[in-house]
Structure formats: structure tokens, C-alpha cells
Amino acid sequence: MEIQPQRFQALIIGFGKAGKTLASFLAGQGWRVALAEQSAQMYGGTCINIACIPTKSLVYSAEEGVPYPAAIAEKNRLTSFLRQRNLANVTAYPQLTVLTGKASFVTPKQVRVHLSETGEDVLVEAEHIFINTGTQPRLPDLPGLHHNPRVFTSTTLMEQTELPARLVILGGGFIGLEFASMYAQFGSAVTVLESGPAFLPREDEDFADVVRAVLTRKQIRIETSVRLLRIESAPAAAEDVVVYEDQQGQTQRLPASAILVAVGRRPVTADLNLAAAGVAQDAHGFIPVNEHLQTNVPHIWALGDVNGGPQFTYISLDDYRVVRDQLFGSGARTTADRRYVASTVFITPPLAHVGLREKEAVAQGYTVKVLTLPAAASVRAQILRQTEGLLKAVVEVGTNRILGCTLLCVEAGEIINTVQLAIQAGLPATALRDHIFTHPSIAEVLNDLFAKV
Q: How many domains does the chain fold into?
């Protein structure tokens, strides 16, 4: 029997930050909206369920000395609460229908949703379609890795209630380092294996050295220029063995009670049948978009991580703003407006950055003055007894324009927002040098950082 389509003005595939915010907004405007999400465990999206929020909850628990099983329980409580709150927020609109199941295109304007609970298919027809399916961990083709109960992703490791005695992390990027710092504080013996020749290659070398020293003091072992060979398992063995070649070309065997794969993420697009809609993908599976977030099919947009842009929740939220402005505003807002996006890596202490690094500014031809300050110079850091780290700013000579700033210190993720706002507003470095901050606060350390402008 042929399925009759249910007609909506908008279909949003994926319950992430951009999707859920857009769904509520459109329903509030009187649109009839369908929101499809493949799993009830992902209501609210990646951030609140398996990424930003649960990891930051665990980081806080680790810093506070909470035992690992209790920290996992608190993380589960928090994510469950947020998941239900997000569902309640969207179902409060009578014009909004939530469909829990896998979505796949049938035509450019029709999408089949296979409902999880009933096994039935629903055919949705919409004039506007928004893909917001996000990304998931990428697994390399390494012998012994797949279908191994001791191998985890950033998602599945946080489901374990037993702390691994020896954790080996494959990948020295930001996700790997966050987990390294967190699990080391819980008490795991952590080793990070990075295939690249340099540790944190995007950072200035002096700053990368400081970050490495901080992590090394936490007893985290970091190896670069590693070539992974295989993972060996034995049914009766208490641990697996990660076999690799080190920087000198010597074969090493590293025991591991748990192995975290953190070598990047890939878009969740495999089941969407994008070809039926004529939607193009790049070589890595991401969906290319224009400055208005439209795909090559104008009535289909791609929002959030799936479009290959910066993988941050706040970028996904701004994607919503771009679309909202197209549909109900002037249409002037685009992704090109994002000139100064800050980021934070939640190791302990956090590593935050905005703008150009010193080497990037020099490579672009700027004449710069580099300002540095140890985190211990902050009175507030001394009070909190969290004095590790370094602050660094890059200022253009002659104009005093702040070109960039990198912070490794307590509350770096908060302070960087102040620097970002100053850069965005075109304020000179002297504005932060002379600004009256509350005392004793972490932000007032910016007075000292920019004192020598």
C-alpha cells in the first residue's frame, strides 16, 4: 500500500543545537514543523548527550576529587535531565511533530522516516528541509581495533562505570587531550599516541611546550611520530596490547585496559540517501554549503557539524541565526560574519584561543609585539591555588590592534570571551590594559598581560 505523505512547511533532520532551536522558532511563527531524530537517547543533540556537557561534567568532578563511578552517575543524571527538558521544549508547540526514527530522502522534497518504536514508515513532504545530523567518531582501519570490547570512542568510554587502570589514547588532538587530562585526574595511567611529528602543531611552539609540560606533570605520557601497527587481544588476558613503532622506528608494546580512539570525526550522512535529493557531498562525506548554509539544492540546508564547518555547538547556534535571518529577516547575515571565533579545550587548566597565533601573524606579514605572562601572576589564581599556565597575546605594532590571544589558565574559557569581544569591537590592546575589572577576578589579569603595550 502506498504511503501518503504528511505535509509540513519545514522538516528538520537531527535534534542538535541548530535543529532544535530552529524547530521551536519556526513552530512559534505558526509553521507546521517535523523534527526527525533517529534515537530517543539523542534528544537535544550531540552536545548535551555525548560531548560538551557530559565531558565538562566529568572534568569538573575530576577536579573536585569525586570518585569515578559517582562522577559517571552525576553525568548520567545531568544528561537525562537535559534530554527530557529539550524534548519538553519542542513538544510544547502543537505545530511541531517529533518523529523518532531514521530519515532517508526519497525525492528532493520527500523523506521517509522509519519509526523506531513501531517499525512503521512515515513519508514527510516539506518545502524547506534542514539537515542537522552532526558527526560521529571516525575509526581507523587498524588490525584488532574493530569489534574489540576494550576499544572505545569518546561516546562509549563515558558509558563505562569502571575506571580503566591504564588508558591508551590514539590521537593527540583536542578530544584526546581532554580525555587524557580528565582520566589522569581520576587516577588512570594515561598514554597519548600521536601519529604527527609535533605536539599541538597549530599552536606556537612555546605554547605547545607549556601545555605538554602541564600534562606531563599530571603523569600523562605523550608520544609523537607514532606509527600504529595493531592491537593484540587474548581471551584470558586482563589487558590488550597496543603495538606501534616509536619515533626511532623501534617496535613498542603498550598494555592497555582501555583504548580510546580520538583521531577525528566523520559526518552522519550514510543513511540519508542524499543522492535521491541530489545533494552533493565532499570527499569526506560532509555537505558543502554556501554562506547562507544552503546546499546545492536551494530548499535544503545543512546546519551544524555535518556541513564541515567548525565543530562547536555555538557555531551550530549561529547557523540557526543565519537561517532565521534568511526566512524572517533581511537576509544579510551569513557565515562570513564569523571573523573571530574563540575556542576552549577543557584540559586542566583550560586552553583557550581567539584570532591569530604569533606564527600565523608573522606569516601574514604583520609586525607584532608578543606579550606573555605566567598564570601565577593572577591573584585570583593564587587564591584558587591553580597557578599553572601561561597567557599570551599578539598585538600589531603601530596600531595596538589585538591580533590574537592564547590562554592556558584557570577560567581561560571565560576570559577569552572578553578578549574576543574586544577584538570584534575593534578595541585596541590599551582598552584591556586600562579597563577596570572587579577584584579579585581572573579577568583582571588582562590588565597585566597588556601592561607593556
A: 3
Cell of 416: 577569552
> Residue 143 falls within a domain, yes or no?
no
Other C-beta atoms within 10 Å of 12: how many?
Answer: 30
Give the single-character DSSP code of 425: T
> Grid coordinates 574586544 are at which residue?
422
Asked whether residue 273 falls in the same domain as residue 230, the answer is: no
Q: Say which CATH number the domain at 224 has.
A: 3.50.50.60
Is residue 144, in this structure, part of any structural domain at all?
Answer: no
Please indicate, yes or no, whether residues 45 and 182 belong to a single structural domain of this protein. Answer: no
Q: Tell me if the bond preceding 350 is cis, omega within 30° of 0.
A: no
Handedness of CA 33, 127, 30, 287 (dihedral sign): positive
> Looking at the annotation, which residues are catalytic?
439
Instruction: Kindly list the strands in the beta sheet with 258-261, ordered across the sheet, starting from the edge strand earlier in the chain.
Output: 151-152, 258-261, 166-170, 189-193, 221-223
- The strand ranges marked E within 251-346 are 251-256, 258-261, 265-267, 300-302, 343-345
User: Quick count: other Cβ atoms within 10 Å of Cβ 68?
Assistant: 21
Domain contains 330 = yes
User: C-alpha angle 278/279/281, rounded to 5°?
Assistant: 130
**Secondary element (H or E) of residue 34:** strand 33-37
Query: In this structure, how many other beta carbons lie within 10 angstroms of the beta carbon of residue 431?
Result: 16
Q: Within this chain, do residues 196 and 304 fall inside the same structural domain, yes or no?
A: no
**Which pLDDT value is given to residue 79?**
98
Collapse the DSSP code of 94 into the 3-class scheme (helix H, G, I; strand E, B; otherwise coil) and give the result. coil
Helix (H) or strand (E) holding 125: strand 121-131
Angle between helices 52-63 and 68-91 (to 10 degrees): 150
Give the H/E segment covering residue 313: helix 313-328
For residue range 338-392, what is the model confidence (pLDDT) as tens digits? 989 999 999 999 999 999 999 999 999 999 999 999 999 999 999 999 999 999 9
Start-end of H helices in 144-191: 154-157, 174-186
Q: Are residues 440 and 379 in the same domain?
A: yes
Tell me which residue of 274, 414, 288 sits closest to 342, measured CA to CA. 414
What average pLDDT does this structure show over 182-187? 98
Beta bridge partners of 284: none
The sign of the dihedral angle between the CA atoms of 193, 195, 196, 201 is negative
